[in-house]
Specification:
The chain is an alpha+beta fold and 174 residues long. 37% of the residues lie in helices and 11% in strands. A hairpin with a 5-residue loop joins strand 1 (41-46) and strand 2.
Length: 174
C-alpha cells in the first residue's frame, strides 16, 4: 500500500500545480432525492475560500466530490479519514491556516467527524500536493513505528525550511 500511495503521489504531482487551483468553481447542485443522498451523502457546500465541504454518514463513505478524481487521490482521502488521530497533530505547510482557517493537515481532508459519526469532508486536499504529501508521509511514518512526536519533528524539519508557507497552528502531540 505504501508503494501504491507513493506512486500515486508522483502521478498527482503532474496533475496538481498548487493550492487554490479551481477554487472559484460554481457550487455543485445537490438533489437530496438522488441515490447518492440516500447512500449516506448529505449535502455539499462551498465555503467563502472556495473549498467544498460535503457531509457523509461516516468517514468510511467518501464524498462525491472525489468521484471524478484519480484512484490514488481517493485512497489518500480514505487513509486520511482513518488517520485523524495522526493528522490532527500534523501541521500543513501550504498556507491553508491563513487562507482556509485550517488547524492541522487533517482539515485539508476532513473538517470534523461529528459525535454521531458523520464526517464533514473538505476538498482542499484535491488541489494541493503539499497537503497530500504530508498526510501520506505522516501515516507511513506511523506505520513504520515512529512516535507521534518524531513524526511531527520530521514533518516540521522537512516542510519548515522556508520553502513552504507558514504552518497551521497545530498542537503538539502528547
Amino acid at each position: 500500500m505504501k508503494k501504491k500511495l507513493l506512486a500515486g503521489l508522483a502521478a498527482l504531482t503532474v496533475a496538481l500545480g498548487a493550492c487554490g487551483n479551481g477554487a472559484t468553481e460554481k457550487p455543485a447542485e445537490v438533489d437530496p432525492t438522488d441515490a447518492r443522498a440516500e447512500a449516506g451523502h448529505d449535502h455539499a457546500e462551498h465555503l467563502p475560500n472556495g473549498d467544498l465541504q460535503e457531509v457523509t454518514a461516516s468517514a468510511d463513505i467518501l464524498p462525491s466530490f472525489l468521484d471524478d478524481k484519480p484512484e490514488d487521490m481517493r485512497m489518500v482521502y480514505q487513509v486520511a479519514g482513518n488517520a485523524t488521530d495522526i493528522l490532527e497533530y500534523m501541521p500543513c505547510y501550504c498556507g491553508c491556516g491563513d487562507s482556509a482557517g485550517h488547524k492541522s493537515n487533517m482539515n485539508c481532508f476532513l473538517d470534523e467527524v461529528r459525535e454521531d459519526g458523520s464526517a464533514v469532508w473538505d476538498d482542499h486536499g484535491t488541489r494541493c500536493l503539499v497537503c497530500l504529501e504530508i498526510a501520506v508521509k505522516s501515516v507511513q511514518m506511523k506505520q513504520d513505528g515512529m512516535s507521534m512526536k518524531d513524526i511531527r519533528d520530521a514533518i516540521d524539519t522537512e516542510y519548515g525550511n522556508g520553502d513552504y508557507a507558514k504552518p497551521t497552528d497545530t498542537p503538539m502531540p502528547v
